[in-house]
Automatic annotation (TrEMBL):
Domain Pirin N-terminal, residue spans: 22-120
Stored Gene3D superfamilies: Jelly Rolls (2.60.120.10)
TM annotation in the entry: none
UniProt source species: Sporothrix eucalyptigena
Protein name, per record: RNA pol II transcription cofactor
Protein family membership: Belongs to the pirin family.
CDD domains, A to Z: cupin_pirin_C, cupin_pirin_N
Domain named Pirin C-terminal: residues: 177-285
SUPFAM superfamilies: RmlC-like cupins (SSF51182)
């Protein structure tokens, strides 16, 4: 690769409580990295049985949930419901308004349900679109192996080494690649020009080239934010490493618009925040079906 992107910053995602009894490591949506357009939030969540995200509203964004282990049930006020399992993704477009619940499976061994949830901003002209869901099953995700099979890439969204993902999952163009590198492996991954990009390390230690400077070793649970200039990223794992490393590489087209977020509502002005709250409280302009609605799955929460 002629010119790898420069690393803007590297920081650890600190674990915190969220929802009802869930634990999350939030990297985007914290003082360390706010509104890295089009990305609003990235949570690496761990939800034990008895915890979860009972009934709550959204407006103005898309959420992408990638389950790494366990299972999560979802249900919304439009009658949509289902379950995603290990390696599955759910793309949810809140649009003008949705109310839903996301609850973990009760795993027989009591283990946690672990995954990533990414919030992506919607372009201004799509903020009031109809809500929708798309599930992407693990078996549908194309993969590619490079560097003598020392690198395995799941092409969730976007393209890598001539392999294209399943199309039309999110309204805002986003690439998501899940990359596992064995000790001694290396990969060059091009990215669309000027898109904002970051990598989040799920396991092990990854070396990322840093433009013309010395490569940077990034440890588990750290987020690596890349500068906008350059052709892509170079990543490797030392041959002396005792275990493989795994990271997600995510890139998206920056949106030229104001971001005003109030909890689960992501709009473009303060006036629109008041309107979202009013619409939600009066069950209007997208929240009509929230009137009196209660999810079945949310009732499992212990009060």
């Amino acid at each position: 690769m002629s010119f790898p992107r420069h690393i803007r910053k590297v920081f650890l995602a600190i674990e915190q409580a969220e929802g009802a009894g869930a634990r999350v490591r939030r990297s985007i949506g914290t003082p360390a990295l706010r509104n890295f357009s089009p990305f609003l939030m990235l949570d690496h969540f761990s939800i034990k049985p008895g915890a979860g995200f009972p009934d709550h509203p959204h407006r103005g964004q898309e959420t992408i949930t990638y389950l790494l282990q366990g299972g999560v049930d979802h249900e919304d006020f439009a009658g949509n419901s289902g379950t995603i399992g290990p390696g599955d993704l759910q793309f949810m477009t809140a649009g003008k308004g949705i109310m839903h619940a996301e609850m973990p499976r009760q795993n027989p061994d009591g283990s946690a349900n672990v995954g990533l949830q990414l919030w992506v901003d919607l372009p201004k002209d799509l903020k009031s679109c109809e809500p929708r869901y798309r599930d992407l099953r693990a078996a549908e995700i194309p993969t590619v192996d490079v560097d003598d099979n020392k690198v395995h890439i799941k092409v969730i969204s976007g393209q890598s080494h001539g392999i294209d993902s399943v199309k039309d999952l999110a309204y805002t163009p986003v690439w998501i690649l899940d990359v596992t590198i064995q000790p001694g492996g290396k990969v060059e991954q091009p990215l669309p020009a000027k898109w904002n990009a970051f990598a989040y390390v799920l396991e092990g230690n990854v070396k990322f080239s840093n433009g013309e400077e010395e490569a940077k070793t990034v440890e588990q649970y750290n987020n690596v934010v890349f500068g906008p200039e350059g052709d892509g990223i170079n990543a490797s794992v030392d041959a002396s490493a005792t275990a493989p490393a795994r990271f997600v590489l995510i890139a998206g087209t920056p949106l030229d618009q104001e971001i005003v977020q109030y909890g689960p509502f992501v709009v473009n002005s303060k006036e629109e925040v008041y309107k979202a709250l009013m619409d939600y409280q009066t069950h209007s302009n997208g929240f009509e079906r929230a009137d009196g609605w209660q999810s079945e799955i949310g009732k499992s929460m212990v009060h």
